[in-house]
Amino acid sequence: MVKSSITTERQKAVIETMRMRLTHAQSLAYLRSVGFDISPATYKREKKKVNDLKLQRLYHIAQIGFEDQHLIRIDNCELIEKLMWENYHLCKEPHKRVMILREIKELQPYISSYYEATKEVIAPALGPNKAENNNIPN
Fold first, then answer.
1. Is the torsion defined by CA of 130, 131, 132, 138 positive or negative?
2. How many structural domains comprise the chain?
3. Do 80 and 119 share a structural domain?
4. pTM of the predicted model as reported, rounded to 2 decimal places
């Protein structure tokens, strides 16, 4: 069985500090706040290790995670849309109902793009010309 991630929880937290572009001191404070009280030297080593793992992480995502992540994003968008409609129907204030409708409208391009990308995600699994044979639109 293939591991679902090649980074540790602490390394994931270090990646978060990098994505948030925190200073060194802010990074250490953030890591402490999420349960990783590490020294500056350990932070530096973990950051280097994460940078050294970049290519491996990309290969790992390509190997096992892409399809799962794609489905999760579609499921999340559909769940968000469903919950927004539920909130719309529960809401009594016209202004808030309009805001919810606006949010639902803004979600639609994301859902459409995920559906469109699905053809590209499943094409390698189907092989050449099988997408057409299985009534999958191009």
1. negative
2. 2
3. yes
4. 0.53
